[in-house]
Write a structure and sequence with these properties.
The chain is an alpha+beta fold. It is 43% helix and 16% strand. It has a two-stranded parallel ribbon with strand order 1-2.
């Protein structure tokens, strides 16, 4: 699998408040069950940490 975006973990960041954690756990499980565990290297899930999201997005899209 190749990913068209720069960055060591791909260019997708799924994020939301802590109350959305169950949704993102289910999304991750679904993607892995359909596409295999390898798919997880193409995204990150960051819950309840807007500063971490900013840092990751800055690193991914800096170029």
């Amino acid at each position: 699998m190749e990913f068209p975006y720069p960055g060591s973990r791909g260019g997708r960041v799924f994020t939301g408040p802590r109350r959305s954690a169950v949704y993102f756990i289910a999304l991750d499980a679904f993607l892995r069950s359909v596409l295999g565990d390898e798919v997880a290297r193409f995204y990150q899930i960051i819950i309840g940490d807007s500063q971490a999201v900013g840092k990751v997005c800055s690193r991914i899209y800096a170029a």
